[in-house]
Known about the structure:
The structure holds 2 protein chains of 2 kinds. Chain A is mainly α. Chain A contains 12 helices and no strands. In chain A, helix 4 runs antiparallel to helix 9 and helix 11 packs antiparallel against helix 12. Chain A is globular, with a radius of gyration of 29 Å. Chain B has one domain: Rossmann fold, CATH 3.40.50.300. Chain B is built from 11 helices and 10 strands. The longest helix of chain B is centred in the middle third of the chain and has 14 residues. Chain B is globular and about 55 Å long. At the A-B interface, helix 8, helix 9 and helix 12 of A face helix 3, helix 4 and helix 7 of B.
Amino acid sequence: MxxxxxxxxxPGSSSDTTRFTRHFRAEKFDFWSFFFSGLTGLAxxxxxxxxxxxxxxxxxxxxxxxxxxxxxxxxxxDFFDANTTGVLPMIVGTAFRVIVMTIFVIPVGVxxxxxxxxxxxxxxxxxxIIRAAVNNLAGVPSxxxxxxxxxxxxxxxxKNMDKLxxxxxxVWGQPALIWASLTLAVMTLPVVIxxxxxxxxxxxxxxxxxxxxxxxxxxETILKIVLPQALPGIMTGGILAVSRAAGExxxxxxTGVAYYMASLPGHLxxxxxxxxxxxxxxxTQSPNIEQTRPILYATVLVLLLLTFALNIVAILIRARVRKxxxxxx
Amino acid sequence: MAETLIPKIVPQKTPAATAKVGSPLIxxxxxxxxxxASRALKDISLNLEEKVVTAFIGPSGCGKSTLLRCxxxxxxxxxxxxxxxxxxxxxxxxxxxDVDVIELRKRVGMVFQKSNPFPKSIYENVAYGLRLHGMKVxxxxxxxxxxxxxxxxxxxxxxxxxxxxxxxxxGGQQQRLCIARAIAIKPEVILMDExxxxxxxxxxxxxxxxxxxxxxxxxxxxxxxxxxxxxxxSDQTAFFYIGELVEFGATxxxxxxxxxxxxxxxxxxxxx
Lengths: 329, 272
């Protein structure tokens, strides 16, 4: 007869129970895991440190120079005087160009993304070319977009509009808010396309199938099932585009920004003043650097706050949409 | 000479062609399907009767779901699919060039393996298909939606929360909602692709009861991995193996006295 011998690891077997503790105790200090967790942590701290330094520096130096007068005044031509100057036209100009840009970039970006994910065959050459073009668009330096805007929008589109509509007198064929906004829209297009594509891809194929199996057309399925679900993702793309565009100066240099304007922009064909460009002007054109420094800080702070505010608005709308989708749809 | 002029529309002889009286609603005629270079269905012919539950059984990858998806042309959505042969529903070839796929899918509804209610309210899920096909008046919608939810044995559970999200329902309830959604647009045929495979036994039993109930009004084709389920609910059974139709006949015959050795081995659990 075989006697059943208890396995080694059970109490009462030949080896003692303490071998468990001996076996599982870390025997020596693991230098490499300590080193790498430390390294990654340090890198994170470094980034946070830089961000905190920038923000705190601007906040501390800019806060004292900000006043209601500063943000609500249209300055005189000499805007280097800290006591009388204001940034109202720059706030209006920056907000205006970002909003007009959003109106153009969202529909074009979303429609492109719908074509790429829903209609185009994934493997076709055309799709690959479009995808490569979108990715390359994201890598083009922003000053090149500025030159493109000048060459295409102002000199080609604008001048031809003037020939057709205004007897060749310069209305559209010059730097203007609309051209600056369109240039920014072209620049931020890849952001919106990629974000929309990602959110479209994340929608379960089962939902599309369910809709099609009920006799919906592809268009009905996209409009009624796919797009409502993708809305938060599309808005994320919009938020990223706004953040990117609000601070850009290079694309608007040749396409619409003005050094000085006595009044607020009232029409899409007007030029405009801009916070980012104004920062550049204050820091390079000032006759008295010491005197200009507080306004410079304050202008940067206003730009940050404006970007922040535009983001907050978009994030709040997105949160509402998400909540609504989750509750009902 | 005269022979070549006659189109080949003579129905293929199948073992089941005589299994039941009445003219068939669905005639599958020599269907072959290729995904790219690989052949998923080989020359399949069978006739499905009206208001009868037909079960497609067979091991994974045997082509039963693929054939099911041919019946409402859901395979059209996949790239690189080539389909030869004809499927006639009510005498019309659904693969003819003049067929309106939208109209076809209205008449041939589908319930999927993974319950896929829209992320909308229970009410809106059923209303979706109705609105698509032109029902706009709220009173009509209300009436039809209640009717469908009753028919899918869901009404008593959801009548107090019609306007809350369908995603809050249990798996079994979601699947019954999908059935309600499918029957709302009054199809003639309902295709079911393993409708109970993700459900617990109680929810499965309710779906099976529902199928037996729906048989009075609809022609049902169900794909299932569950042999007992096929035996319980179907009148006719087709057994597929690696893209071929091995045997088709009355369910009682397939399960008790199959003609083919492979069928017997499969239904008795010897492989698959």
